[in-house]
Amino acid sequence: MKRTGLMTRMTATSSAVAMGLVLAAAGAAPAFAQDTQDVQDDSGEEANPNVDANDPGQNEADRAIIISGFRASLESAVGTKKDQDLVIESISAEDIGKLPDASIGESIARLPGVTSQRLNGRSNVIAIRGFGPDFSTTLLNGREQTSTGDNRGVEFDQYPSEIVNQVVIYKAPSADLIGQGLVGTVDIRTVRPLDFGKQVFAIGARGSYADIGKLNSGSEELGWRANATFIDQFADDRVGVSLAVAYVDEPYHNQEFNAWGYQPISSAFFFPDDPRGGDTLIPGGSKSFVTSTGLKRLGVNSTIQVEASDDIMVTLDGFYSNFDDDQIKRGIELPIAGWFGTTGDPSTYGITDGFYTSGTLENVQGVVRNDIFSRKADLYSGGLNINWDPGNGWSAFVDFGYSRTDREELSIESYSGTGFNWDSPFSSDDDFAAGDLTDTMGFTLSETGLFFSPTLDYSDPSIIRLTDPLGWGGGTRTQAGYYNNRIVEDELKQYRAELAKEFDHDFFGGLKAGVAYTDRDKSLVPDEFFVTLGLDGMGNYIREVDIPQQYLQSPTNLAYLGLGPMVSYDPRELIRDGVLVLEPNLSNDIPAKAFTVTEDIVSAYIQADIDGELGAVDLTGNLGVQMVWTDQASSGIAFLNGTQVDVEAGDDYAHLLPSLNLAARLPGDYVIRFSARKEIMRPRLDDLRVAIGYGVSTTGQFVEQFGGPYLEGGGGNPQLRPYEANSVDLTFEKYFGSSGYVALQAFYKDIANYISDDVVTDFDYSGFPLPAGVQPVSLTGVLFTKNNTGSGELYGIEAAGTLPFEIFSPALEGFGVTGGVSVVESEVKRADGVSEAIPGYSKWVANGTAYFERWGFNARGSVRHRTTFLGDFTGFGGSPTRRQALEETIVDAQIGYEFQPGSTLEGLSLYLQGQNLTDERFASVADTSNPLSVIDYQIYGRRFLAGFTYKF
Questions:
Q1: What is the dihedral of CA 784, 786, 790, 793, to 10 degrees?
Q2: Nearest to 724 by CA among 684, 687, 751, 688
Q3: More confident residue, 880 or 1
Q4: What does the DSSP assignment read for 36-90?
Q5: Which of 533, 614, 693, 939 has the most CB atoms around its CB within 10 Å?
Q6: Whole-angstrom Cα distance, residue 212 to residue 222?
Q7: Cβ pair 212, 254 in contact under 8 A
Q8: What is the pLDDT of residues 745-781, one digit of tens each?
Q9: What is the DSSP string of 388-428?
Q10: Phi first, then psi: what are they for 16, rounded to 5°?
């Protein structure tokens, strides 16, 4: 019944949108459309006419001013935006192997209506128009890509900026855009050698320095990266070859405070009630680290173009990335609010704004942590395109794309402390090891987290030993750590064909039809172990072991928290040599995390291109419809009353996605764009997993509804349908030749189908084994999971522009600004009326760059700002968790010099960059109205980079 209702709403909505598009097109004048995929692939250098055309004494070379560098990148982006019929944003390389920023994520985050979230100081995922990475897709040369995460969202630090020639973000898609997202589609473009049209060989290198210093033993504060690019044409310019290679070896560091959370003193274990009031909040505990990351990444991209005949162009391209992100995290975990034996007298504590902000804790037994987080990934991507264009109006192409990611994400936790402690607040069994030391320490809470004043020396290996300090092994097993390896394989194959015909018609300029088939398989296999100290001769778990001297490293300093130095070692060495022993975790929770998801997607489209005139107005655009058929399935392990059973489930469905895009080009370089369409975004792949736990309930809350025993479970939902929205865009743009523009963009999305968290839904258990004993009255039961029960709306305004100041006065040539600001309102509600926060949503996003570039000199400063948002953080065992992140403002700057034509060093560019110059923190809070409720507070420091590029 529920599925029928959903399909009815979908069909009705699609029909209404389609009728509106037909009526809009019927009232339009004749027009011509440009293929959405025909975005110019610019090299980053242009000849910009800026001369006296009436002077016959000037030859062609004298009558051209060559614009290069950042100004050329902006001109290319302005030209791309102006020529398109769609609502897009783009950025182009300043030169071969040189995007305007050190990272592709940072470059994208400077585009209007776009921002990013940092990971260890790097911009790795983006949010478009207030929606996080779950709501947009990424293409490489027009083809869908696999991801290094559990979801579909691409992490952009996987792609070296040196191999990228152009990035285009489609905010409003057309029918022929395959793999589109709900709020945007990012297309990363690499260079096409025949289109580039000349030979070039370029090399570059840079060094980097992190001013926060090397925080862990064995880490570095200096890094480097190098790249080389070669492009050439052969056989009378009928064969083109490009090859780009980039290698990175750079460190990243951060100091982090993390709180377990906050609770009223009245609910704290072992603490007496405070007569001043039991509602005052106190941190449950603290888990804080200094993290040092060594990032090593090799990226290789190659393209071969062959003009096989005057009619046929063959393009073969491939991309490979080897990604090695190795982290060492050292710190301490401290129970505070009466947890695990900690005591204190709250009546003596200081109180500010409902929080205990100072006091003294007693009997504190901390867990000194030496953790490893290592992510290794290999990404393979490529494709073959054969394009036929005989020049008579007909054209066609066939395309094959392939993408695969193999990833291992290893997390090792290692615990040490003053002794074994089994003193659970949930048990009366107290087992303190004889001679255990506990700490008495003061604490101070501020907006940056907790600051401590301990009495113990946590760097002394005579008192800090390998053990289970807080009895996390349950009092029986000595759990001295945890080992969690997540093995992910993601493979995608895409086949596509299109046939097009240009018309000499007063209304339609052409017609195209195409079909695409996408086959995707993604799997996760968890491999988890308890880390113990092994067994003694009696078969009992060893409680404590001294850290062997040969494994000890220089202590790690947590002075930023007042904690001083900590015992440091690499747990991988202790596991390798048998000091720490791995014991398999046989809990049902482990296989429940595994999933295999398959998708077979057929997309067929037909699109009419529009080109016409309305008096002095040129009208272009397109009108089309895309039909998408999806067959999704998931296999895995479910748990029938705790017993493992192999199961498989899924669903199939179809979506009709009409779209209309119009661009009216008025005299005076004004452009008005209008877009209306229906959009979808598929669910997270890990949310589609079939692994659930279920059983027959005879006393649950739904017994009366079902009229007896019923099936109840919880887990993933292989029957999830995509997010859906009906969207409208209206844009007003003014251009200043080919170098500048200002724009005002308004958009509205009616979210017809949203995926809500933790809701109860009807679920068909007919494909699952039934338990023995009491039988359910129906094979349809309930499942606590994510479900398509939400709806809402999203609307906003974006103002953007690129203004070279020479349009105001020739004396200001070389100066300019570019950037944008957007404000977005959003409301999404579940079926029960409860509002939900959208991941990645910031109400305000702004960015801007001021620059000067002339006579070879260049300088620019950039600022990007976003207000509070629901951000992604790493939770227990590496699992993702979301918390409210605070607003942040990032400031970067660059200066450089390019040796001019005719000089001895012509072709050489030097630059110096500074990133995060204000040392902006990345922080989250439990309550945005009170900054004292800080959960995370991370400091990355400033980064300085010096480098060169040399083009032969």
A1: 150
A2: 751
A3: 880
A4: TT------S-EEE--S-TT-TT--TTTT-EEE-HHHHHHHHHHHHHHH-SS-EEE
A5: 533
A6: 11
A7: yes
A8: 999 999 999 988 777 888 888 878 887 788 899 999 9
A9: E--SSSEEEEEEEEEEEEEEEEEEEEEEEESS-EE--TT-S
A10: -65, -45
d(CA 470, CA 859): 54
Q: Which two tokens stand for residue 182?
A: 């709900």
**Joined tokens for residue 297:** 């990444």
215, 292 in Cβ contact below 8 A?
yes
**How far is residue 687's CA from residue 756's CA, in Å, rounded to a whole number?**
11
- DSSP 8-class letter at 288: E
**What's the whole-number average pLDDT of the chain?**
86
Task: Count Cβ neighbours within 10 Å for each residue of 241-280 and write b for 16 or more, e otherwise.
Answer: bbbbbbbbbbbbbbbbbbbbebbbbeebbebeebeeeeeb
* Angstrom distance (rounded) from CA 126 to CA 917: 21
Question: What's the token pair of residue 43?
Answer: 């090299």
Q: What is the mean pLDDT of residues 674-702?
A: 89
Torsion of CA 616, 619, 620, 623, to 10 degrees: -170
8 A C-beta contact, residue 434 and residue 384: no
DSSP string over 743-804 = EEEEEEEEEEEEEEEEEEEEEE-TTSPPPSSSPPS-SEEEEEEEEEEEEEEEEEEEEEEEEE
**Residue ranges of E strands in 423-480:** 431-432, 439-446, 449-453, 465-466
In one-letter notation, the amino acid at residue 404 is R
3-state secondary structure of 483: strand
pLDDT tens track for 407-466? 999 999 999 999 987 654 444 444 444 447 899 999 999 999 999 999 999 999 999 999
The DSSP output letter for 31 is B
Nearest 5 degrees, angle CA 908-CA 911-CA 913? Answer: 160
What's the Cα-to-Cα distance from 170 to each of 38, 90, 909, 916, rounded to whole Å?
13, 9, 32, 28
pLDDT digits (tens, 9 = 90+) for 34-46: 333 444 333 333 3
Please give the Cα distance from 126 to 143 (Å, whole number). 19
- 4 pLDDT higher than 80: no
Contact (Cβ atoms closer than 8 angstroms) between residue 747 and residue 727? yes
Residues 605-633 pLDDT 10s: 999 999 998 889 999 999 999 999 999 99
pLDDT: which is higher, 530 or 784:
530
**Complete DSSP assignment for 86-141:** S-EEEEE-SBTTB-SSSSHHHHHHTSTTEEEEEETTEEEEEEETTB-GGGEEEEET
**Residue 805 backbone phi and psi in degrees, to 5:** -70, -10
How far apart are the C-alpha atoms of 356 and 443, rounded to whole Å?
Answer: 10
Closest CA to 604 of 497, 678, 750, 446: 497
Distance from C-alpha of 752 to C-alpha of 792, rounded to nearest angstrom: 7
Q: Which two tokens stand for residue 40?
A: 């110019």
pLDDT value of residue 42: 38
What does the block give as tokens for 267? 């609910």
User: How many CA atoms lie within 13 Å of 224's alpha carbon, on the beta-carbon side?
Assistant: 5
Listed in sequence order, the residues at least 6 apart from 931 whose beta carbon sits closer than 8 Å to its beta carbon are 447, 886, 925
The Cα–Cα gap between 185 and 86 comes to 12
The Cα 655–Cα 602 span in angstroms is 11
Structure tokens at 773: 């004993």
**Quick one: tokens of 583?**
């014991």
- Quote the CA–CA distance of 359 and 619 in Å, as a whole number: 71
217: buried, middle or exposed (CB in 10 Å: 19+, 13-18, 0-12)? middle
Dihedral through CA 650, CA 653, CA 658, CA 661, nearest 10? 10
Dihedral sign (CA 534, 537, 540, 545): negative
- Whole-angstrom CA distances from 560 to 207, 247, 288, 937, 947 are 27, 33, 10, 12, 32
**Radius of gyration of the chain from Cα atoms?**
30
